[in-house]
Specification:
The complex is a heterodimer. By secondary structure, chain A is mainly α. Chain A is built from 14 helices and three strands. The longest helix of chain B has 19 residues. By secondary structure, chain B is an alpha+beta fold. In chain B, a hairpin with a 4-residue loop joins strand 5 and strand 6. Classes of the chains: A mainly alpha, B alpha+beta. Chains A and B meet through helix 1, helix 2, helix 3, helix 4 and helix 5 of A and helix 1, helix 2, helix 3, helix 4 and helix 5 of B.
Chain lengths: 309, 173
């Protein structure tokens, strides 16, 4: 009898333990499934790390990223030097900057406004309107962006200008020109571009790189997927900045109307994918940002500066 | 009775843990302002660097209510943050990677900020581009043109005033 009681007592105790375990597990599961609480727990485990700066672990990872990126990519100074060399050829090919300082400053204000909201906001950007009858815009590695007077002339508001400049900033951000050089094996054997290397054997390699960039950006055009990516980034960037994200669609439609009879060589017509497919993709992208109430078009200010063309 | 009490406890925990769960946001622009109210004209509580992690506690008409890691709360404009953590380095793909890497190059931009800052102090052509111009026999007018382009400076204050005048983004009515 006493033994039976003891067995029953033991069984009940095991049941209670099991129920407690299940309850505790359920509650712990809820706590850990909550990202906020999980984050706090993570902080505690890291010894109350500084979440704003990522803590020591973040610093270490940042350091590792620096080493990795220096091995993978051309450093900014070299990229910018290459971009400047290409810009010199850009003036040779597309003409000199328009004289109006007011217009050039305005283009720089619009361009830098969108660049702050791009995927690479940490570098300086420079924008220039050149005296060219071709409908064209292109970006040099490192952040110098050209746009032709003819393309600005076609536009009606600042949101359209912002869209084209954001498209070019996206090419810089995604390093499309450098990736294209890499595909053409023109980056091989070139580490840093410095004043010293420009005097040695590497100078010829740099000239080949600039030549390759001219072929890609002025004549053949970038890979069409890179253009679609820049269009998508442009729509996202203009939306994030606060401009009407339909600006890119409107510019592309205007170009479509201009296409017949327009000079093609060296323009967006010959170096970019067909306009119909770009318009369709830009529309799909814009549809992701339906909550664009209050987005800016800024027609009056644009028209004021357009008179300087 | 006990079972009902226990189920209520579970449901309560589930409700409160969901309510407390907040989305994490990251600052995606250099020097984003944390405002005391949902307006660019409100007092600035803090200026947050690119990559700052924030906890979202609300959203109203293009502004996020957020809390910083050190417990400060305020409002930040939606165009200055993202739900995607900026990557440590841009992925080395050979073709377009879609919008998934929209912020791919952001953190390495901050890494290269030192280089960018020094380039800001360079007025005119870099010595490397000058050397290229000599070797390529670039006419003086093109060198002067590039010099002029690189001499245009835009400050953060000018950009803010420009957005304000155009009623763009955080300055929209």
């Amino acid at each position: 009898m006493a033994t039976k009681k003891a067995i029953t007592g033991t069984t009940q105790a095991v049941d209670r333990c099991r129920r407690h375990f299940l309850k505790t597990s359920a509650l712990m599961g809820l706590v850990l499934a909550n990202p906020v609480l999980a984050f706090d727990l993570n902080e505690l485990l890291q010894g109350g790390g500084d979440s704003e700066n990522g803590g020591k672990t973040g610093e270490l990872l940042k350091g590792a990223g620096k080493i990795l990126s220096s091995q993978k990519e051309m450093d900014f100074q070299s990229e910018f030097a290459l971009g400047q060399s290409l810009a010199l050829e850009g003036f040779r090919r597309y003409g000199l900057p328009l004289k109006s300082k007011s217009l050039q400053k305005y283009i720089n204000l619009v361009g830098n406004t969108v660049a702050r909201h791009s995927n690479r906001p940490g570098i300086p950007y420079f924008f220039v309107v050149v005296d060219s009858p071709l409908h064209n815009a292109f970006a040099c590695p490192g952040g110098i962006v050209f746009i032709s007077a003819a393309l600005v002339e076609l536009m009606e508001d600042e949101a359209e200008l912002a869209a084209v400049l954001a498209h070019e900033v996206a090419h810089v951000g995604h390093r499309h020109a450098l990736k294209s050089l890499k595909r053409a094996h023109l980056l091989e054997g070139v580490g840093q571009i410095t004043a010293a290397t420009m005097q040695g054997e590497d100078a010829e390699k740099v000239r080949q790189m600039v030549g390759g960039l001219q072929t890609i950006l002025f004549d053949k055009g970038l890979d069409k997927n890179m253009e679609y990516e820049a269009d998508a980034s442009s729509v996202a960037t203009t939306y994030r900045t606060g401009y009407d994200p339909r600006g890119m669609q409107r510019v592309l439609r205007k170009l479509e109307r201009e296409q017949e009879g327009a000079a093609k060589a060296g323009s967006w017509f010959s170096t970019h994918p067909p306009l119909a497919s770009r318009i369709e993709k830009a529309k799909d992208q814009r549809d992701k940002y339906r909550d664009d109430a209050g987005s800016a078009v800024v027609k009056t200010r644009f028209q004021r500066y357009k008179k300087y063309l | 009775m006990k079972r009902i009490f226990f189920l209520s406890l579970i449901c309560g925990c589930l409700f409160f843990s969901s309510a407390a769960a907040a989305e994490t946001l990251w600052v995606t622009v250099p020097d984003a302002k944390l405002q005391a109210e949902r307006s660019a004209y409100a007092d600035t509580i803090a200026v947050l660097p690119l990559g700052t992690r924030l906890e979202q506690t609300g959203y109203e008409s293009r502004w996020y209510r957020v809390r910083t890691g050190d417990g400060r709360s305020g409002w930040i404009y939606r165009g200055n943050v993202s739900t995607e953590e900026p990557a440590a380095a841009a992925p080395e793909t050979d073709d377009g990677g879609g919008l998934d890497d929209l912020f791919g190059g952001m953190m390495d931009s901050s890494i290269e900020a030192d280089a960018a800052d020094s380039s800001r102090s360079i007025r005119g052509l870099s010595p490397e581009a000058e050397a290229y111009a000599q070797q390529a026999d670039t006419p003086a007018q093109y060198r002067q043109a590039l010099d002029d382009v690189l001499s245009v400076k835009v400050t953060d204050r000018e950009l803010a005033a420009f957005k304000q005048e155009g009623k763009i983004g955080e300055y929209a009515e």
